[in-house]
Amino acid sequence: MPRSRRAKLAVWKFTSCDGCQLSLLDCEDELLELAREVRIANFLEATRAQLKGPYDLSLVEGSITTPADAERIRDIRRRSRALVTIGACATSGGIQALRNFKNVPEFIAAVYAKPQYISTLSTSTAIADHVPVDFELRGCPIDKRQLLEVIGAFINGRKPSIPAHSVCIACKRSGTVCVMVAKKIPCLGPITHDGCGGICPAYGRGCYGCYGPAETVNAASLANAWHAAGASKAQMHRALRSFNANAGEFRAAAEKLDEDD
Amino acid sequence: METPSPEIAPQSSLIDCGGLDALIGALSAEGYTVIGPTLGDGAIVYDEIRSAVQLPAGWTETQSPGAYQLARRGDGALFGYAVGPHSWKKLLHAPVLRLWRAQRHHDGSITAQTDPPPPLRYAFIGVRSCDLHAIGIQDRVLIGGQYRDPHYAARRGGVFIVAVNCIVAGGTCFCVSMNTGPRVRRGYDLALTELIDGERHEFLVETGSTRGAAILNRIPKRPAADSDRQSASQATERAASQMGRQLDTGGIKELLLNNLEHPRWDDVAARCLACGNCTMVCPTCFCTTVEDHTDLAAGAAERIRSWDSCYTMDFSHLHGGSVRASIKSRYRQWLTHKMATWFDQFGTSGCVGCGRWITWCPVGIDLTEEVAAIRSGRRDDNG
Questions:
Q1: How far apart are CA B295 and CA A88, in angstroms?
Q2: Where does the pLDDT of residue B89 fall: very low under 50, low under 70, confident under 90, or very high at 90 and above?
Q3: What pLDDT is recorded for position B11?
Q4: Is pLDDT larger for residue B377 or for residue B45?
Q5: Under an 8 A CB cutoff, do B362 and A183 touch?
Q6: Strand, coil or helix: what is B33?
Q7: Can you say how many angstroms the Cα of residue A80 is from the centroid of all Cα atoms in its chain?
Q8: The pLDDT of residue A248 is above 60
Q9: Dihedral angle at the C-alpha atoms of B77, B81, B86, B87, nearest 10 degrees?
Q10: Do the Cβ atoms of A45 and A16 come closer than 8 Å?
């Protein structure tokens, strides 16, 4: 049934590059429809106008990297009926989660003239590690069609249709010839969550794993196949340690490669 | 062989490369969208062609578990390779298809409409025997029973098939084991056998239908001699002797179903990525899923059907979750369906021995090896 009132939509930023919330502004053809269907209650990249909560739907971009972040997300959760995280930072900690595997005080000392002014956590973590999350939309950056699907689903009270299968299925549906089999190009597609539709293999490159782990991950077997294709363990390790380095199965797979060395 | 194979009809003809080009032209002139093998993306794929020049002259490929590589032949053969990453199902059983869309109107009423089928009639050039059997299997599954898939039927109806008898076998081919090739037997309009030797480059053409004969009458040709039929027969027999793989299918249904707890399933599960590639490249796999989408206002909705795979979690999602959570259970489901329970369901094996399942597995799992391992260490735990 048609809704009686427009849903209040809020967009929040944590530690991130802004690319995912930019995907919302990138919905050029759908922006007018979006503005008709929701009230933009908080979206600083688009407007200074801010409405008070509670919000029907909060989209959260970015990871938690400071004590202040950790406080603020709890406040946002309290003021949000539904909270959806968008992008690799918010769903796994992002590229900045590489800090999780290094010594953060050493970084601070090396980078900042007055390290005492820096207040940061030793880890970059997903929003879901701090508050309950209603849905995680993956990607670095997210796909705008998937974003519209998720917003549409939440404001209309249905389940988002976002499959968690491998990138391989997208490649095969679009007729892309497998780059691993035909070109010996190392590809993370078989263990990576679809969402992009297989962009990189369609351009003759291996998947970078932007959408993080697929629903089923057998990284040990893929590592053997990479090895057979001439890629070293170090290359596989490096591929896993990118935008989704801290995502469960990718992190575990990289740690396993560390152990094997 | 002393005498030509009796299977080749005595009224067969010969055409040269110009005749093949004329055939493609005649089919186009008849209004067919002609699809054939062509080079693309580092492989021999199926795509629209307008001339024989677009066929992969002089190309072949090497195939092994998890590996495919284009290679040059020593001659200019147009069909001197086995099957590639694509199968004809991408055209007949669309990978992604809108089933219907609906609109809500201001007065609250809802109208739904389906898209008309594409205004296409396909002509397929270069359909191999394994793939012809695969099309036959999909016909049985999708339009042969009580519930016909109108979308498949619309695309399948009227397809003009120019089959090709294989003159080489790929490294993962095993049609001989599955009794599905390499020689085509039925289901085609015209069937070609490429005769290439030194200066000679011709095609022996057999006619399988009246419309095949009608088209053939419009292109330059000459009658084939017994010696041509003999050469054609020998070329296909040579391919039959080159099968890269073989599979002992004796009692395969009982073998698999009586060994559901065989340790080999754990072994293969350690290697399987559950990525779904095998099901997608398999020319008989037919499973689909449907997704519903709305616009933001929920005023318009559409239902999209896409190829699905029994390797996804959603595929077996029932109340509470997926009933095949482990990779082992998914691999076993697929192999036992394809090689065993398919007989119960559709009266044949679900495998045509095309080898795609082996070549296009990123980790090179070879089902012929898996079945052989189960056979050699059979326990018949459920028997």
A1: 25
A2: very high
A3: 82
A4: B45
A5: no
A6: strand
A7: 20
A8: yes
A9: 100
A10: no
> Least CA distance to B362: which residue of chain A?
A181
Per-residue burial over B169-188, b if 16 or more Cβ lie within 10 Å, else e, is bbbbbbbbbbebbbbbeebb
Contacts of B329 in chain A (CB under 8 A): none
Residues in chain B: 383
B236 and B259 assigned to the same domain: no
The 10s digit of each residue's pLDDT in B293-330 is 999 988 999 999 999 999 999 999 999 899 999 999 99
Asked if the model's pLDDT at residue B383 lies above 70, the reply is: no
Tell me, what's the pLDDT at B4? 43
Instruction: Tell if the CB–CB gap between B68 and A222 is shorter than 8 Å.
Output: no
Closest chain A C-alpha to B41 CA, distance in angstroms: 6
Check residue A3 and give its pLDDT. 59
Q: Which of A102, A129, A155 is the last residue of a domain?
A: A155
Give me Rg for the CA atoms of chain A.
20
Q: How far is A187 from chain B (nearest CA, A)?
A: 9
Query: Which residue of B lies nearest to A219 if distances are taken between CA atoms?
Result: B273
Contact call for A218 and B292, based on CB within 8 A: no
Nearest chain B alpha carbon to A228: B363
Q: How many residues does chain A have?
A: 261
Host domain of residue B274: 252-376
Residue B18, pLDDT above cutoff 50: yes
Residues of A in contact with B296 (CB under 8 A): 30, 33-34, 36-38, 148, 151-152, 155-156
Distance of CA B272 to the CA centre of its chain: 22
Identify from A177, A187, A193 which residue to disrupt to test chain B contact, counting B C-beta atoms within 10 A and taking the largest count. Answer: A177
Of the candidates A148, A156, A166, which has its C-beta nearest B298's C-beta? A156
Task: Examine residue B218 and state whether it is found in any structural domain, yes or no.
Answer: yes
Measured between CB atoms, does A34 come within 8 Å of chain B?
Answer: yes
Q: Provide ipTM, 2 decimals.
A: 0.95
Confidence (pLDDT) at A41 = 97
Residues A104 and A185 in one domain: no
CA-angle at B11, arms to B9 and B12, nearest 5°: 75
Task: Output the CA–CA distances (angstroms, integers) from residue B260 to B325, B334, B374, in the order listed.
Answer: 16, 12, 10
Contact B333, B324 (CB under 8 A): yes
Predicted confidence band of residue B105 (pLDDT cuts 50, 70, 90)? very high
- Is A165 close to B96, i.e. CB distance below 8 A? no
Q: Round to whole Å and give the CA distance between A41 and B307.
A: 39
A:B CB pairs within 8 Å: 145
Interface test with B, best of A147, A172, A174, A179 (most B CBs within 10 A): A172
Q: Are residues B237 and B329 in the same domain?
A: no
Domain boundary among A155, A179, A204: A155
